[in-house]
Amino acid sequence: MSVLSQLNRPELYLICGGIILFIAIVCVVFIVRAWRMGKRLGMDVTKMKRAVTASATFSVLPSVGILLGVLALSGSLGTPWPWLRLSVIGALHYETQVADAAAEQIGIKLSADQMTVQAFSTIALLMSVCIMWGMILAAIFNPRYTKKLQGKGNGSGKPGFGDRAMVAMFIGMVSAYIGSYIGGFVSGGGRFTFAGSWLPLAVAVVSAAVMALLSWLSEKKNMKWLDNFSIAVSMLCGMAAAVLIG
Question: Helices 230-245 and 45-77 meet at what angle, rounded to 10?
């Protein structure tokens, strides 16, 4: 039996599906409680229905990007594990990045023909350990931080530390990705290979251009509803660009 067949065994589907089902039930419980609380507070039921419909609609397109991530990882890690990761707590950019980095460190590529049981165990463990600190730190520090936010407001309308830290984190992450391809150019003696450097950079440019356009439409043309689709649309356009250019 191949490793990929073992990673797609019914037992793994049962375990991962059970966890996802539990999370789905918790979500339904919170939806029901929120609806009842809204009615108890005297909120307009019509507006509540619109909010539910809008939220459900705006969740569809971003989910397409997540589905693509599950399909991309399932070719090397099986379907149950990526399905679990990207359904509960994982993020597409995190899961793919960490899985690929873990595979590289143990000397293989993230592909079905090189995957072993030991490699999968290492990759799955690293994917889990690296992301759990957000939950742990949030449980420890968020209550105090929330009280601080409620007790103090700068009132200036300027971005706070959290907003600046988030922007800085994403700039650093994007710089690391782009820098790795530029580094390949420098270490390669100034030779760009299309598949090795030009293609990822071209995809990054297309994705950034689409994101900039959607942000401009949202801010300047008052199309705020685009905020719910900007990440997913830019990802899909980047993937389409990779297929067309490559």
Answer: 30
Asked if residue 239 belongs to a domain, the reply is yes
More confident residue, 182 or 28: 28
Torsion on CA atoms 92, 94, 98, 100, rounded to nearest 10: 40
Q: Which residue has the higher pLDDT, 157 or 236?
A: 236
Domain final residue, candidates 133, 153, 182 = 133
Q: How many CB atoms lie under 10 A from the CB of residue 207?
A: 21
**Exposure class string for 143-155: b at 16+ Cβ within 10 A, else e:** eeeeeeeeeeeee
Range of the domain at 190: 174-246
Q: What is the pLDDT of residues 135-192, one digit of tens each?
A: 888 888 888 877 766 555 455 556 666 678 778 888 888 888 788 777 776 776 555 5
- For 185, residues 6+ apart whose C-beta sits below 8 A from its C-beta are 191, 192, 197
Please count the structural domains in the chain: 2
Are residue 15 and residue 124 in the same domain, yes or no?
yes
3-state secondary structure of 8: coil
Same domain for 78 and 182, yes or no, is no
Residue 81: name the closest of 60, 108, 102 by CA.
102
Tell me which amino acid residue 101 is: A
